[in-house]
Amino acid sequence: MVDPYFELAGCDDGSTNDEPPPDNEIIVPSTGVQVYNGNGTSYTGSNTVKGKIYNVTPEVFLDVGTITDGKLTLALPEIVQDAWLDIYEGSSAIIEPSDLRVYYKGFGRVFNGSNETGYLSFTNDADTQEHNAYYIYFNKDATITGTHVSSSNPGNSTEYTITGKKGWNLVYEHDVDSGKSVVTTNSSSMPNNMKWFFTPKRE
C-alpha cells in the first residue's frame, strides 16, 4: 500500500472529446467531483488542496485545487520549479535518462485555512488502498522500468512500467501479492469503483 501522504492528485484538461481514452491513459475525475469519507458517505467540507515541497526550507506548499461543499476541482501548476524536484526513490529500477527529477511526495494535503486537516486519495478503498491512481511530475521525458526490491525488507518489491513525458503523468499502482506491487502508466486493470476519498489527519 502506498503511504497516503505520497498520493498525487488528478486533473482535467477541460477537453470535451467524447472518444474513449486509450488503454494506457488513466482518467481521474477531478472537476466538481464528489469526495467521500472513508465510510462511503459524502464529504461536505470546503477546503484548499496543496502539495508539500519537502526539500526546501522554509516549507513551500503548491496550491493544486479546491473542495467546495464536498466537490473537488483540481488545477495542477503547469511548471514545478527545478529546485523543488528530487530523484525518484525506485533506486534499483532502470531510470532513463538517469538524471530524471520528479515531484511526487506530499501531494493531496487538505487544508482549512492554515490548518492541515487530512489528505485526498483516488483509490478503490480508503482503508486497504489496493488500487491507487496519482500524478508524478517529470522534468523531462523518461521511462522507469524493472523491479525495485526493498533493501530493508527484501520480501517487498515494486515492478515499474512507467513511460512519462515532461510534465504531469498519471500513474496507476496496485498490489499483486503480499509485499509486491506494480506501478504503471497502463490502466487496463484499474477497477471501475475508484473514488476520491478524504481521510482525516492522524493526530
Chain-wise SSE layout:
Blueprint: E1 31-37, E2 47-53, E3 60-68, E4 71-74, E5 94-96, E6 102-103, E7 109-112, E8 115-123, E9 131-138, E10 142-149, E11 157-164, E12 167-177, E13 180-184, E14 195-200
Parallel strand pairs: 1-14, 11-13
Antiparallel strand pairs: 1-4, 2-3, 2-7, 3-4, 5-10, 6-9, 7-8, 8-9, 8-14, 9-12, 10-11, 12-13
Rg from Cα? 16 Å
Biggest sheet record = 7 strands, mixed, barrel
Mean pLDDT reading: 82
* Range of helix content: under 10%
Strand content: 35-45%
Contiguous low-pLDDT stretches (5 residues minimum) are 1-24
- Helix count, DSSP H or I runs of 4 or more residues: 0
Name the helix and strand elements from N-terminus to C-terminus, one letter apiece. EEEEEEEEEEEEEE
Spatial ordering of strands, largest sheet: 1-4-3-2-7-8-14
Structure notes:
With 203 residues, the chain is mainly β. The chain is 0% helix and 45% strand. The protein has strands spanning 31-37, 47-53, 60-68, 71-74, 94-96, 102-103, 109-112, 115-123, 131-138, 142-149, 157-164, 167-177, 180-184, 195-200. A seven-stranded mixed beta barrel has the order 1-4-3-2-7-8-14. Strand 12 and strand 13 (180-184) form a beta hairpin. The protein is globular.
List keywords for this structure.
mainly beta, 7-stranded mixed barrel, globular
Tell me briefly what this model is.
This protein is an all-beta fold and 203 residues long.
